[in-house]
C-alpha cells in the first residue's frame, strides 16, 4: 500500500514537471531540452524567497507562484529569441538550440547561486507524516499528490473549457486559419509558451522541499518527464497525466519486486507502451 | 679584449655547464618552477575541481611566501579537463608542449586514465589528487604517478573497523547505495572491515545486502521504507552529493534518527550539515580526507585552514582542500630535495621523503605509490546551541597503512 501511495507521489511529481513540457510541444512542436533547467531556475527563485525554512505551506505555495511568474517571463524571452526562430527547422537544430539554452541556464544558476548544495525544509504542517488506515504516509507526499491533481484539473479546464484554451487550441491546430479569423496568433503563442514555462517554474517551487538544490537539479526529472510525454502522447496533457501515474506505479512496483535493478522497469514499461501504443496512450495531440 | 685559446675554453666550458645544469638550478636564477594542475572546472564535477584549485593555490602561496623551491618561485598553471578524458589529454598535451614536467591532476579516475599512459613520453612526474579508484595503483599503475587519495579498502575498511570498535553492541547493519558499480567497492570494504574486526573480537555481525537506489533519483521513500523495515540498528549510506542530501531530507519524515542507533554516511561529510543546517540528523558519522580540528599539533593543517577561511570565509573546508594542498607540497618538496625536474630523480625522492602536510606526514607505499597516511572520521549532527544548527561531536583517526589493500602494481587486485 505504501508503494502505491509513493508511486502516486512520484507520478504526480513527474507530472508537475512534464505538464509544461507537453504544452510547449503541443503549441510549437518543439521538444524543449531546456525544460529541466527552467524547473531548476524556478526552484532556486522560490528558495531565494522562502529561505531554508518556509514559515507555512502558504508561503511555499506563494513562492512557487512567484517562481512560476519569473520563469514564465523568461520563457517568453526564450520564445521570442530562440524558439520562434527554430520552430520550422529540422528537429536536430531544435535539440541543439534548446540544449544550448539549457547550458546558458546552468551557467546562469552557477553565477547567481553558486555550486554548493542548498536545501529547503518542508514547512510546518507538511513536514511530518499521517496515519491513514494504519498506513504511515508522509504529509509532503499528500501535498505533492494534491498539487499534481490541482494543476491537472486547472490545466484541463483551461485547455478544454476556457475561451483562452480554445483560442490556443485553434492556433495550435491551424495558425493560418486562426489568424484569418482575427485571432492574434503571435500573442496567443507567446501566452501559451509563457504558460508552459511558468508550469516548469511552479513545479520547481512546489517540489523544492523534496529535492536538493544544485546546478544539476534540472536533470533529476527531465528524463522521466520526457518518458511521460512520449508515453502519454506528444502534446496531450491528459495522456501525460495518466502516463505519469502509470510510471510512478511501475517505479514503485520495481522497488518492491526487483530491488536489485532500481529504475529499470520504467524503461521496460516505456518500450512496452510504445509497442502497444506507438502514438502514446491517448495519441498525439495539438492540445 | 683579445680572445685567446684559454679564454675560449673557459668560456665554452662555463656555457656548456650552465646548459647542462638541471632546470631547477637555472630556475634559481629567476625562472619559476611550473606545476600543471589539471582538474574539473566546468560541468558536474566543477564543485570538487574548485576545491582542488583553491587548495593548490593556497599551497603555492604558502610555499612562495616561505621562499619557494630553492629560491625559485612556484607557478601554478591551471587547466580545465572539462570532466572528460579527452579534455584532460588536451590540457596535458598543451602544458607538456609548453615544457611543464610536474603535474597534479584529479580527481576523476576516467580523466586520469586518459593521461597516465602519456607520462613516460613526456617525462612527467604526477601526483593524482584525491583519486580513489583501485585501478590507478593496480592495473593502470604508472611508476611516475603517485596517488594522494584514499582507496575504498583503506578508508571504508577502516570505517567498518572503527564502527565495530565503537559499537560492538550492533549485530546487524543495513546499507543503502546508488546503483553505480564503482560504489559497490565502498559497501564491500565497509562490510569486510566490520566483519574482520568483529570476528577478531570473537563476535558475529550480520551485514545485509545493500538496498539500491537509482543514481540521480528524485524519490527515495520506497528504499527508506525498506531499510527501516530491515530491523537493523546500524545503517551505512553510500549515496553521494545531492542524492545523499535529498535522501536525508526525505528520511526525516520517517524519523530516521529514531529508527537507527548508529547512522553512518560514506563521505559526504559537511556537505550534508551545511545544506541541512538545523535539520541535520542528530548524529552522523562520516569519513573525511582532512578535518583540521582532528589534526591537533599540526601547524601546516592550521595554516591551510586559516588560509582557506581567509579565502572563502568558510570554517569547514572540504577535504579536497587539504589533499590538493599536500599534492602540490609533495611535488615542491621533491623538487627541492632532488634539485631537479627529471622524473628519474623525483620519483625515488617522493618514494622516500615524508614531508609534513596538512594531512600529517605524507608518505606513499613504494611498491605501488599508494598514499599511506592517516584516516579521519568525524561524528557531527544537529545542535540547537550552535548558530549553524549543527556541531562536530567527535573525531577518530586510524593509521591508513594498516588498511591499504595488497599492492599489485600492473595487475588487477583480485
From TrEMBL, chain A:
GO process annotations (BP): amino acid transport
Cellular component per GO, a single term: plasma membrane
Domain of life: Bacteria
CDD domains registered for this protein in UniProt: TM_PBP1_LivH_like
Membrane-spanning intervals of the chain: 6-26, 33-51, 57-83, 95-115, 135-159, 180-208, 220-250, 257-277
Alphabetized InterPro entries for the sequence: ABC_transp_permease, BCAA_transport_permease
Subcellular location field: Cell membrane
Location, primary (coarse class): membrane
Keyword terms: Amino-acid transport, Cell membrane, Membrane, Transmembrane, Transmembrane helix, Transport
Single Gene Ontology MF annotation: transmembrane transporter activity
Topology relative to the membrane: Multi-pass membrane protein
Xref: Pfam families: BPD_transp_2
Name recorded for this polypeptide: Branched-chain amino acid ABC transporter permease
Organism in which the protein naturally occurs: Aminobacter anthyllidis
Biological classification of the source: Bacteria, Pseudomonadati, Pseudomonadota, Alphaproteobacteria, Hyphomicrobiales
Automatic annotation (TrEMBL), chain B:
Lineage, opening ranks: Bacteria, Pseudomonadati, Pseudomonadota, Alphaproteobacteria, Hyphomicrobiales
Record domain Leucine-binding protein: where: 33-378
InterPro entries, alphabetized: BCAA_transport (IPR051010), Leu-bd (IPR028081), Leu_Ile_Val-bd (IPR000709), Peripla_BP_I (IPR028082), TAT_signal (IPR006311)
Any single biological process term in GO: amino acid transport
Top-level taxon: Bacteria
The protein, known as: ABC transporter substrate-binding protein
Family annotation (Gene3D superfamilies): 3.40.50.2300
Family listed: Belongs to the leucine-binding protein family.
Amino acid at each position: 500500500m505504501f508503494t502505491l501511495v509513493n508511486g502516486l507521489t512520484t507520478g504526480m511529481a513527474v507530472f508537475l514537471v512534464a505538464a509544461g513540457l507537453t504544452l510547449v510541444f503541443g503549441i510549437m512542436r518543439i521538444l524543449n531540452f531546456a525544460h529541466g533547467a527552467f524547473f531548476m531556475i524556478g526552484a532556486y527563485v522560490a528558495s531565494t524567497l522562502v529561505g531554508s525554512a518556509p514559515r507555512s505551506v502558504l508561503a511555499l505555495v506563494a513562492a512557487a507562484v512567484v517562481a512560476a511568474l519569473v520563469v514564465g517571463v523568461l520563457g517568453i524571452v526564450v520564445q521570442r529569441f530562440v524558439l520562434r526562430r527554430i520552430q520550422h527547422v529540422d528537429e536536430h537544430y531544435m535539440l541543439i538550440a534548446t540544449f544550448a539554452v539549457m547550458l546558458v541556464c546552468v551557467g546562469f544558476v552557477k553565477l547567481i547561486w553558486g555550486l554548493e548544495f542548498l536545501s529547503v525544509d518542508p514547512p510546518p504542517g507538511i513536514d511530518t507524516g499521517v496515519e491513514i488506515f494504519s498506513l504511515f504516509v508522509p504529509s509532503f507526499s499528500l501535498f505533492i499528490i494534491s498539487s499534481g491533481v490541482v494543476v491537472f484539473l486547472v490545466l484541463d479546464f483551461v485547455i478544454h473549457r476556457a475561451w483562452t484554451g480554445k483560442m490556443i487550441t485553434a492556433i495550435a491546430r491551424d495558425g493560418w486559419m486562426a489568424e484569418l479569423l482575427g485571432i492574434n496568433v503571435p500573442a496567443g503563442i507567446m501566452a501559451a509558451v509563457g504558460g508552459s514555462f511558468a508550469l516548469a517554474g511552479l513545479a520547481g517551487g512546489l517540489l523544492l522541499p523534496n529535492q536538493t538544490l544544485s546546478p544539476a537539479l534540472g536533470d533529476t526529472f527531465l528524463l522521466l518527464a520526457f518518458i511521460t510525454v512520449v508515453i502519454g502522447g506528444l502534446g496531450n496533457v491528459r495522456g501525460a497525466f495518466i502516463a505519469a501515474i502509470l510510471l510512478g506505479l511501475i517505479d514503485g512496483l520495481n522497488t518492491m519486486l526487483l530491488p536489485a535493478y532500481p529504475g529499470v522497469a520504467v524503461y521496460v514499461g516505456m518500450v512496452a507502451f510504445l509497442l502497444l501504443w506507438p502514438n502514446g496512450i491517448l495519441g498525439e495531440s495539438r492540445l | 679584449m683579445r680572445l685567446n685559446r684559454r679564454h675560449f675554453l673557459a668560456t665554452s666550458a662555463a656555457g656548456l655547464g650552465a646548459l647542462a645544469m638541471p632546470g631547477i638550478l637555472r630556475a634559481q636564477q629567476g625562472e619559476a618552477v611550473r606545476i600543471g594542475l589539471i582538474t574539473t572546472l566546468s560541468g558536474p564535477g566543477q564543485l570538487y575541481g574548485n576545491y582542488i584549485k583553491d587548495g593548490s593555490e593556497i599551497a603555492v602561496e604558502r610555499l612562495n611566501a616561505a621562499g619557494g623551491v630553492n629560491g625559485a618561485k612556484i607557478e601554478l598553471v591551471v587547466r580545465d579537463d572539462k570532466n572528460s578524458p579527452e579534455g584532460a589529454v588536451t590540457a596535458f598535451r598543451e602544458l607538456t608542449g609548453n615544457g611543464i614536467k610536474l603535474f597534479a591532476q584529479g580527481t576523476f579516475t576516467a580523466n586520469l586514465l586518459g593521461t597516465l599512459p602519456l607520462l613516460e613520453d613526456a617525462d612527467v612526474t604526477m601526483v593524482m589528487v584525491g583519486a580513489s579508484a583501485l585501478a590507478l595503483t593496480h592495473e593502470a599503475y604508472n611508476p611516475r604517478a603517485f596517488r594522494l587519495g584514499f582507496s575504498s579498502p583503506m578508508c571504508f575498511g577502516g570505517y567498518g573497523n572503527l564502527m565495530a570498535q565503537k559499537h560492538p553492541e550492533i549485530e546487524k547493519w543495513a546499507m543503502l547505495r546508488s546503483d553505480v558499480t564503482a560504489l559497490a567497492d565502498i559497501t564491500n570494504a565497509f562490510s569486510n572491515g566490520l566483519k574482520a574486526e568483529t570476528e577478531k573480537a570473537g563476535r558475529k555481525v550480520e551485514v545485509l545486502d545493500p538496498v539500491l537506489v537509482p543514481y540521480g533519483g528524485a524519490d527515495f521513500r520506497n528504499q527508506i521504507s525498506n531499510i527501516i523495515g530491515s530491523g537493523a540498528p546500524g545503517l551505512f549510506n553510500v549515496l553521494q552529493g545531492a542524492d545523499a542530501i535529498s535522501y536525508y531530507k526525505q528520511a526525516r519524515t520517517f524519523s530516521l534518527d529514531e529508527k537507527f542507533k548508529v547512522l553512518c554516511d560514506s563521505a559526504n561529510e559537511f556537505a550534508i550539515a551545511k545544506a541541512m543546517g538545523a535539520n541535520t540528523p542528530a548524529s552522523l558519522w562520516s569519513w573525511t580526507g582532512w578535518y583540521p580540528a582532528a589534526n591537533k599539533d599540526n601547524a601546516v593543517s592550521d595554516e591551510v585552514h586559516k588560509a582557506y577561511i581567509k579565502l572563502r570565509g568558510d570554517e569547514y573546508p572540504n577535504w579536497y582542500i587539504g589533499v590538493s594542498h599536500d599534492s602540490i607540497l609533495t611535488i615542491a618538496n621533491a623538487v627541492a630535495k632532488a634539485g631537479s625536474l627529471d622524473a628519474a630523480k623525483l620519483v625515488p625522492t617522493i618514494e622516500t621523503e615524508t614531508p609534513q602536510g596538512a594531512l600529517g606526514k605524507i608518505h606513499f607505499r613504494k611498491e605501488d605509490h599508494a598514499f599511506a597516511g592517516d584516516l579521519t572520521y568525524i561524528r557531527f549532527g544537529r545542535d540547537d546551541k550552535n548558530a549553524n544548527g549543527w556541531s562536530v561531536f567527535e573525531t577518530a583517526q586510524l593509521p591508513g597503512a594498516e588498511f591499504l589493500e595488497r599492492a599489485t602494481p600492473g595487475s588487477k587486485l583480485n
